[in-house]
What we know:
Blueprint: E1 21-24, H1 28-39, E2 44-47, H2 56-59, E3 63-64, H3 74-85, H4 87-91, E4 102-106, H5 109-118, E5 130-132, H6 134-140, E6 150-154, E7 158-159, H7 162-175, E8 179-181, E9 186-192, E10 195-201, E11 204-207, E12 210-213, H8 219-225, E13 233-242, E14 252-255, E15 258-262, E16 268-271, E17 276-279, H9 282-286, H10 288-298, E18 302-305, H11 308-314, H12 327-330, H13 340-353, E19 362-372, E20 379-382, E21 389-393, H14 399-415
Parallel strand pairs: 1-2, 1-12, 2-8, 4-14, 12-21, 17-18
Antiparallel strand pairs: 3-7, 4-6, 5-6, 9-10, 10-11, 13-16, 13-19, 14-15, 15-16, 20-21
Helix pairs in contact: 1-7, 1-14, 3-14
Amino acid sequence: MPGPYVVPVHGDEELPKACDVVVIGGGIIGASTALELAERGLRVTLCEKGGIGHEQSSRNWGWVRISMRDPREVPLMAESLRIWDGLDARTGRDTGFKRAGIIFTCANEKELAEHDRWRSNLEGYQIESRMLSVGEFTNLFPGSRLGMAGALHTPADGRAEPQRAAPAIAEAARDKGATILTECAVRGIELSAGAISGVVTERGPIACQAVVLAGGAWSSLFSGRFGIDLPQLKVMNSVLRTKPLEGGPEQTVWAKDFAIRKRQDGGYTVASGYDNIVDIVPASFRYAKDFLPALRSEWKSLLFRFGGRFLDEARIPRHWSLDEASPFEYDRVLDPVPSKKRQDKALADLTAAFPIFAKAEIAQRWAGYIDVTPDAVPVISGVESIPGFHIATGFSGHGFGIGPAAGRLMADIVTGRPPIVDPTAFRLSRFRDGSKIELISGV
Ligand SMILES: Cc1cc2nc3c(=O)[nH]c(=O)nc-3n(C[C@H](O)[C@H](O)[C@H](O)COP(=O)(O)OP(=O)(O)OC[C@H]3O[C@@H](n4cnc5c(N)ncnc54)[C@H](O)[C@@H]3O)c2cc1C
């Protein structure tokens, strides 16, 4: 498979005729939802069109952070950190989770004040997070030459291994009785009296009472086929990993020009802290109005590109019949070509800041498409127009860390249990009911 090596999950052979819940998408969100539902005794089938975790969930930086989150996500992320603490024991597998801390450096006094103000979002959570002076930062990293005004350090933040986590969670769901189907795209849903009665997969139908769509960057296309308007676009980020390197930072570090996370193998995952490429595609025009506020505040970090991707996406049908191959069967793994130029620049800027990286050897390069919503907050919600249909998507570059709790919240909504946090901010209807759509803060 292209992209980073992912711990392989072998799909089950037999397609169940019926189950309680079908989860569409085997990224960290779908896998976490499946595990929660299976642990509650429901019969669950997880359908993944490619391999478990092969899209965003294995390509990400591996940051598990509450720091600098949009305040609307903070309660759910606080739950997620707690879930990560017990995830290895719960799954019986190694996700690489470690509370190694995350440091956001501040280039100037304005950023320093903003980061300091952000800390008020943690009041009442007993999560340590404090500002570091330049002197304190230099004491932590004596070899550093990074110019800055100070930094925000959150020791309670963590890191985990993206190439291990979703597979570990999916395998644990299978241990609890879930069926895991790989190379098995869901073409669509079936309704009876307006409510969910099943799905049609490329291997045949499965009857069920509930469906969770956790399709990452594909969710808007899937929903649109069934009349659900889900504003969602994609942003590309390029990543490289180095071979093991002695003497680099233990903590995860963000600076304007680079972002690094130490890997379990002793190497580092390196990316630009800032540069994201936006391919202009037909959906860019469809959702232009929805994304205008986000574009206004984020345009400095976005590089717009018009090229082959426009034609590729223009060719994807938005309507298809359930008895013929769907677009999900033609593209098993989204595997964009990374920007070598931006990766090399990130590594060069990192080396200027931490000279130890002059010894770093590049082991691998890849890129990933991040699926984003207009307010950069996910949708974790039932769909009012189709009873039994639920959506958990749009994690906007922050879904790996929050994934385990997002799965718990989705399972609460599906089973009608009191939700672990108030899900109002994550409702799908906010985009079309006249609510003010705001991009609040965060990275
Ligand atoms: C480069 C990069 C860096 C990032 N860094 C971080 C980070 O450090 N920390 C963090 O918290 N987040 C980070 N993110 C974001 C994070 O990776 C995502 O938010 C998260 O992985 C989303 O998980 P998901 O399960 O929703 O989507 P995905 O992992 O994309 O999974 C969706 C799955 O659904 C499948 N699918 C879609 N349609 C169908 C269908 N019809 N039938 C069957 N299967 C289907 C797809 O094949 C895919 O495997 C980063 C993302 C990228 C790309």
